[in-house]
Amino acid sequence: MSSNFTKFPNWINLYDRASRIPLAIYGRIWKTDSDIIQVNSIWSDRAQQMKKTVRKHRVSSFKYNHETKKINKLGSFALPDDTTESSIISVCPSGRKTAILFEIKDGNGADRKQFFRVTDNETGACLLCINVTGMKKHGVVIKDSVFGVFKWSHNEDKLLYLAERQEKPAEFYDADLEWNDTEKLAKLKIGDKFKVVESWGEQCVEVKQPIISILDINEEKIDIFDEEWMDKITPESIVWCPDNSSIVFFGLDNEPFKLGRIFCDNRP
C-alpha cells in the first residue's frame, strides 16, 4: 500500500477532486405541447470534508429545432436536494453559483460543525467545500433572520457573513492553579466560566458578540474584522459597495443593553 502512495503524492487532493464530480441517480424527461423539453434529474456527489453524500436537483430545458433536426440546450439550474441540514442558501447575482451553509450535529446535538459549500448551478459540480468550524477563525456562523447575512460580492468571488467571536473557553476555580501568576490567570479567564454574556434575546439568544467575516472562494480562506469598536456596536444589514472595496452596515449600540431588537426596531 505504501508503494502506491509514493506514486501518487497528491492522491488525497486527486481523490477529493474526483469525488466532486456529480453522478446522475435519477432522471425524468417531460415533453410539453410545444417544442420545449424539460429534464428533471437528481445528482449525487461525495463531500469529503463533511463525510456526507450530497444530492442536488437539476432542471434543464431544451428546444427541438425542426429545421436542423437538432436539440438545443436553453439552460440548466441546480439546487440542493438532500437530507443534510442546510442553514443558509444564497445564489450569486448572475445565478451561476450557489453557496450553502451546512450544519451537521452529532447524535446528542452537543457538538456541531459548520461547512461552506459552493456549487456550479449549470453543471452541478462542487467548486468549494470547507470546514468552517475546523478553521477556528471565529465561532458559530450567525444564521437567524435578524442578524444572519450571506451576501455575494458583485464580482462573485467572496461571501460576506456574520459570525460569533472566537472566545477561549473560560475555566472555573482550580486548587492546582498558580495563583501568584496574575498574568497567566488573566489569560485563562479564571472564574468566568459561568459568567453571563448578554445576547440580543428575543429569538436571537445565540447572537452575543458578532464579527464581520468574509470567505474568499478563490483563495479558500476566511478574513475576519474584529475591531475594538465592535465591543460597543453590533453590525446589522451588511451590504457590499458596488466596487467590492468596502462594506456598509447599520450599527446597533450595545449599551445600555442588548435586549429588545425584534420588537423594538426603533431603538437608537
TrEMBL record:
<dbReference type="Pfam" id="PF19283">
    <property type="entry name" value="APEH_N"/>
</dbReference>
<dbReference type="InterPro" id="IPR045550">
    <property type="entry name" value="AARE_N"/>
</dbReference>
<protein>
    <recommendedName>
        <fullName>Acylamino-acid-releasing enzyme N-terminal domain-containing protein</fullName>
    </recommendedName>
</protein>
<keyword id="KW-0378">Hydrolase</keyword>
<comment type="similarity">
    <text>Belongs to the peptidase S9C family.</text>
</comment>
<feature type="domain" description="Acylamino-acid-releasing enzyme N-terminal">
    <location>
        <begin position="48"/>
        <end position="268"/>
    </location>
</feature>
<dbReference type="GO" id="GO:0004252">
    <property type="term" value="F:serine-type endopeptidase activity"/>
</dbReference>
